[in-house]
Amino acid sequence: MSDRQTTPPGYIVVEGPIGVGKTSLVNRLAKSFSAETLLEAVEENPFLDRFYNDGRQAAFPTQLFFLFQRSRQLQGLRQRDMFRSALVADYMLEKDRLFAEINLDKDELKLYEQVYGGVAMEAPSPDLVVYLQAPIDVLMERIRKRGRPQERRMDALYLKRLSDAYTDFFYHYDKSPLLIINAAEINPVDREKDYQLLLEQICTVRSGKHYFNPAPLLL
User: Fold this and answer.
1) Residue 177 maps to which CATH number?
2) pTM for this predicted structure
3) Residue 33 CB partners (closer than 8 Å, separation 6+)
4) Alpha helices, DSSP H only, in the chain?
5) Annotated binding site for ATP
6) Domain span holding position 142
7) Which one of the listed residues 3, 81, 90, 127 is annotated catalytic?
8) Can 164 be counted among the known catalytic residues?
9) How confident is the model at residue 60 (pLDDT cuts 50, 70, 90)?
10) I need a labelling partner for 173 at 20 to 30 A (CA). Which of 13, 41, 180, 208 fits?
11) Domain for residue 219, yes or no?
12) pLDDT tens digits for 166-189?
């Protein structure tokens, strides 16, 4: 990589709906930039299996567990030494409220908002947010291929609501530079040419909103 490509933003967040490839990309970016990772420990949530099996009954405790978990992790980030190595994360705190608005009923959401106000804090703003987008059929296929047992009952309607919520959120987002990626046509995790193109974009964007939607490369 060129000299410019070896100086990425210090704190990068990769976001997007379930199945879009956030964590895989985070791990690859961290390796390229010799960065630390901040990852959601989804497997630690004891309510998640029940949520996928019977969403209404387990939605509220599932959401609260994630809220407390994410808040603790990001609290540690605020106390992090600014001179340590770069950091790449696979979530931002704002996603918690986004999921809550989809998963909770009116009364649960009202109670959630009270809890959120008590535990959430102003998390450090990323130096760059990478937002991955993909059509619902692509997300469903990727979820099927990775074969996580708790996601077997994931349906297209839920993913559509989630994707629409992400689209609306990032349409209005302006806290950090934003790079929006068409993750359906390119594969920066498995295809080296795609990945190198994305690296160049990541190391170039320093302000504003940008779209990365290159024509798919022929193998």
Assistant:
1) 3.40.50.300
2) 0.88
3) 8, 86, 88
4) 22-33, 48-53, 55-78, 94-103, 106-119, 136-146, 156-172, 192-202
5) 16-24, 142-146
6) 4-212
7) 90
8) no
9) very high
10) 41
11) no
12) 999 999 999 999 999 988 878 888
